[in-house]
Design a protein that fits this description.
It is a single chain. It contains 12 helices and 12 strands. By secondary structure, it is of the alpha/beta class. It has a 4-stranded parallel β-sheet. It has a 4-stranded parallel β-sheet with strand order 7-6-8-9. Strand 6, helix 8 and strand 7 (206-211) form a beta-alpha-beta unit. Helix 1 (10-17) crosses helix 3.
Length: 341
């Protein structure tokens, strides 16, 4: 049998297997009554011949393009390429291609990105919204990945449960004074993570919340967060809503001569690719990207094929996994600052 002949069509596959072109089409599209054995044989032969379906032909037959849109809030953030990869894999498994747009953290550009994808006749759009924004009717089926507390959310990580898990871990190590570090108070995700943390404070525990944007408005962008003073005030646990903010906290503490984790424990969220290779390795919360993507795409495809606007998933949240590394340990009895010479 010949292999990888680009441009092979349905008729060639049908002739090789002694079936009709219609049977081949039904097997490749998942329609009609074709036995599982024959479907497998047809798909194997199509792959060997390098068969590529005509998107134009499929669009004419079905009224659909076989393409989904994906809008991300900031593709420069190392978290979002991971989400894009998971969505692309789930979409490919479902038989769809993906067009990606970046809103660059701007509400206006998010709207523009959505409109541009709609104009390109995508069958549906997966949107990871810019923080604090709500996605309403956009003119085509949509799945939203943000937070269970976001109106119209389809599926997301259980950010509240993740916050609970990290504080439960630290409380079990004897920590009682927590600094919860967020970036922006308008973010539903960050508020859920911090809310979860607060809900699991141990008896006699205390937590302060620091919003970095508000701090920088007061002291200037890139200024120190004053974490050394927090350690002097008895804070031993520094819980950031993302690994990026946790890295900032870790760097500031180390530069002040404060040992991590011996004097201060630090945690993050999202388990970014570098979190396991920095020194010390960062304790963090990991999202099950594959599960979230599969649920979102499945819900979106169901809406595309049955009609409707908003994708509703069978479950709206996926638990986060605590990944314990070297930045957390037993709380120091008497936290102390060691000045760097």
């Amino acid at each position: 049998m010949a292999f990888a002949r680009s441009g092979s069509n349905l008729s060639q596959i049908a002739a090789l297997l002694g079936v009709s072109a219609a049977t081949v089409s039904n097997a490749l599209s998942g329609k009609g009554r074709v036995s599982a054995e024959l479907v497998e044989k047809i798909r194997t032969t199509a792959a060997e011949l390098g068969y590529v379906p005509s998107l134009t032909g499929r669009a004419l037959r079905t009224g659909r393009t076989g393409v989904l849109g994906l809008v991300l809030p900031d593709i420069a953030n190392p978290l979002f390429p991971q989400i894009a990869q998971a969505i692309e894999y789930a979409a490919s498994t479902a038989g769809y291609g993906v067009l990606i747009a970046d809103s660059r953290g701007s509400v206006a550009m998010q709207t523009e990105a959505i409109n541009r994808l709609v104009e390109r006749d995508v069958d549906g759009i997966v949107i990871v919204p810019r923080r604090g924004t709500r996605i309403t009717d956009i003119g085509c089926p949509v799945a939203v990945i943000d937070s269970p507390s976001t109106p119209g959310n389809t599926v997301s990580a259980d950010h509240w449960q993740g916050g609970q898990a990290v504080v439960a871990h630290l409380a079990g190590l004897g920590h009682r004074k927590f600094l919860l570090i967020g970036n922006n108070a308008a973010s539903n995700v960050q508020n859920d993570r911090i809310g979860g943390m607060k809900s699991r404070l141990p008896q006699g525990g205390h937590a302060d919340v620091m919003w970095i944007e508000k701090h920088e408005d007061q002291f200037g962008k890139g200024s120190l967060l004053g974490l050394a003073q927090k350690v002097a005030d008895g804070f031993t646990a520094f819980c950031a809503v993302s690994d990026l903010h946790a890295l900032r906290a870790l760097t500031e503490l180390q530069r002040a001569g404060i040992a991590v984790p011996e004097t201060a424990s630090v945690t993050g969220f999202d388990d970014l690719v570098w979190s396991s290779v920095i020194t010390p390795g960062l304790t963090t919360l990991r999202m099950d990207m594959a599960a979230i993507a599969e649920i979102a795409v499945t819900a979106l495809v169901r809406v595309i094929e049955t009609g409707g606007a908003a994708a509703v998933a069978e479950r709206s949240s996926v638990p986060m996994e605590l990944v314990i590394r070297q930045t957390t340990t037993q709380a120091a009895a008497l936290p102390a600052i060691v000045s760097k010479q």
